[in-house]
Structures are given as C-alpha cells and as structure tokens.
Design brief:
Number of domains: 1
C-alpha cells in the first residue's frame, strides 16, 4: 500500500504566505466559480495562487488567505 504524501495531507490552518500543494485543503477553503461540486482542494481555492492566469501554472502554489486571489 502506498504511503500518503505529506504534500497531500490536509492543513489544520491556512498556510498564509506559504506553499500549498494542489490536493491539500484547510478549513478556510472557499471554492472558485469553476470548482466541480463537492471538490475541496487548494487547487480550486480562491485564496491560493497557482498562476492560473499566467501562461505557465505552478506545481506548488502560495496561500494568500485571507486575501482572495481569484473568483
């Protein structure tokens, strides 16, 4: 059985100004408008910046909670 990666573990608090991995999530999660129903991951969070508006997206994002980055 594969051991879970630390990068996929849920966060107890927002990692403000720190790195977040796409599959992580914390209690401050707020979905963007394009988030599939019921999916809770930093990749889809309004506070996470993965440079989705740039030509090249990031593999590891940055949490900017409580400042919303995308809608």
């Amino acid at each position: 059985m594969e051991k879970p990666r630390r990068e996929d573990a849920p966060l107890k608090v927002p990692n403000t100004e720190g790195n977040v991995w796409p599959k992580q999530v914390c209690l401050a999660f707020q979905p963007r408008a394009d988030t599939p129903e019921g999916l809770r991951q930093c990749w889809y969070c309004q506070y996470a910046d993965f440079h989705l508006d740039k030509p090249r997206v990031l593999d590891v994002g940055v949490c900017y909670w409580p400042k919303k980055i995308t809608k």
